[in-house]
Amino acid sequence: MKIEHVALWVNDLEAVKEFYQTYFSATSNQRYHNPKTGFSSYFLTFATGARLELCHKENLPKVQAERLGYGHLALSVGGKDAVDELTQRLVAAGYPLHSGPRTTGDGYYESLMSDPEGNLIELTTD
């Protein structure tokens, strides 16, 4: 068994799609839109084959970052230098750095960032 994809609800499909394409080299399919339900989405594919579905529907309630359920999306970006470089690049572009880069107590080298809508992304080594 494998996880086929992870879905993420967003307010601005285009901005979030551009973020993952720019900083994580994701490729996108064509936008899907169902006019009957108001649902739209993109599937983003990463070099390893992992997929992220960005979903949008008008009038969804906002949620807070720390709650039961989704915690963060961990993306392995290479070695320590790659984590450091991408962290610096994202901070320079104005994205919030919540912690790191650092080695955690359980041995991960990581930093914790936010995407354009505040979803938490853990940048980690391979």
Automatic annotation (TrEMBL):
What InterPro entries does the record point to? Fosfomycin_Res_Enzymes, Glyas_Bleomycin-R_OHBP_Dase, Glyas_Fos-R_dOase_dom, VOC_core
Q: Which residues form the VOC domain?
A: 2-126
- Which Pfam families does this chain map to? Glyoxalase
Q: Which PANTHER family match?
A: GLYOXALASE_BLEOMYCIN RESISTANCE PROTEIN_DIOXYGENASE, LYASE, PUTATIVE-RELATED-RELATED
The name under which this protein is listed is VOC family protein
Q: What is the lineage of its organism?
A: Bacteria, Bacillati, Bacillota, Bacilli, Lactobacillales
